[in-house]
Write a structure and sequence with these properties.
Layout (H helix, E strand, L loop, with lengths): L15 E3 L11 H16 L4 E3 L5 H15 L3 H5 L5 H9 L13
Parallel strand pairs: 1-2
Length: 107
């Protein structure tokens, strides 16, 4: 069986989890437990997932992603001043999938 680390990056598809299907998401319900399991499995297998939650106003979504672009467009010296401890570096590199772009992170 081919592991995630052996599969070409172009063949990988992130898990998709829809958080908006249940109008009143409450801890302890069957739906909550199902979502919790999906999130855990996605993080264990892929380290991330694609999430959908349609109750976030589109203006807020636009503002957040615009701010993220500004954050990652910071000058290189600013980014280099942000460091990760050896413990965090090992957590990041242990989940890297061969052939994917380098991870960009801030301390």
């Amino acid at each position: 069986m081919e592991s995630i680390n052996e599969a070409p990056a172009s063949d990988l598809k992130l898990p998709f989890i829809d958080f908006s299907s249940e109008p009143d998401l409450k801890q302890g319900t069957h739906y909550w437990d199902s979502l919790k399991s999906q999130v855990r499995e996605a993080l264990e297998d892929y380290g991330c997932f694609e999430a959908s939650f349609d109750r976030v106003p589109s203006r807020l979504r636009t503002d957040v992603f615009g701010s993220l672009e500004d954050l990652f467009d910071l000058p290189l010296p600013t980014k280099q001043g942000s460091t990760l401890s050896p413990r965090h570096i090992s957590e990041v590199t242990s989940g890297v999938i061969q052939g994917t772009p380098s991870l960009r992170a801030l301390g």
